Amino acid sequence: MGLVVWNQDEAGPYQAIPQPGQSWQPQGEPARQPHEYERGGTAKLLTLLHPATGEVRVQGVTSSANAVLHPWLREQLAAIVARLPAGDAVTVPETNRAQWERWQEGLQEKFTLLEELPRLRMLLIWDNLAGHKSAELVCWLMRHGIMPLYTPLSGSWLNMAESIQRILVRRALAGQHPRHAGEIIAWLEATARGWNQTPTPFIWGGKRRARREKAREKEAQRRYDFLARHRVGGSGARTAFSSRASATTLQRGREWLNGYPHAK
Predict the structure, then answer these.
(1) 188 and 224 housed in the same domain
(2) DSSP secondary-structure letter at 147?
(3) How many structural domains are present in the chain?
(4) Domain span including residue 46
(5) Is residue 20 domain-shared with residue 118, that is, in the same domain?
(6) Do residues 13 and 44 lie in contact, with contact meaning Cβ atoms separated by under 8 Å?
(7) C-alpha to C-alpha distance for 128 and 52, rounded to whole angstroms
(8) What predicted TM-score, i.e. pTM, was given to this entire model?
(9) What gap in Å lies between CA 123 and CA 204, rounded to an integer?
């Protein structure tokens, strides 16, 4: 439908303490951690993921309050929308509104759409936090052609930003001992920059996809079995083997027929 899809989430908090993970310790000599517990602060990770390309935009923070999250979201989303190709202007407002309303079908909670809507350009998938539903932020999204879609309760697995966060955190912190929140933030952001050099696209999985794949494989096998049979002219009939005899078979047939005068 010409729409781009982004996923947003906040990860953390991550404590500045020895993090579990693998290490290059000799066999029989496990890694040892200091017994002292020092509060080194915590850090969080603001994340925007573009599944189609794998591009990720992150910001390490010590707090993900609305006063911190909303300005960062506006800045990042405005930059993303500015990169999108300019589409046609809205000529039929009713058709344009119907496209927005289509994405609200089946929702238990629907926010009120603006009277004048721009062309829909982006779908933003994120959690259903109260801050994500503030009227000021939702109106800003709509004015920029962005439709927010909220994952239901216990439905965070529908947000693929959860996966990229797990990858980045594991690569940045596993087996490390950050001393303060600044180190955590620096390591996470550096890991994200490394990821964006060769990003991996994300595709949707889950039980529904498995059922669709199974149905497609079954249909493909049926089509293969159908096309693998040889076509017989005059109808849609197929044969398991070619009705055309090979040159060797024809030659042997001629030799056999030549041995019987009545067959000539």
Answers:
(1) no
(2) E
(3) 2
(4) 4-197
(5) yes
(6) yes
(7) 23
(8) 0.72
(9) 15
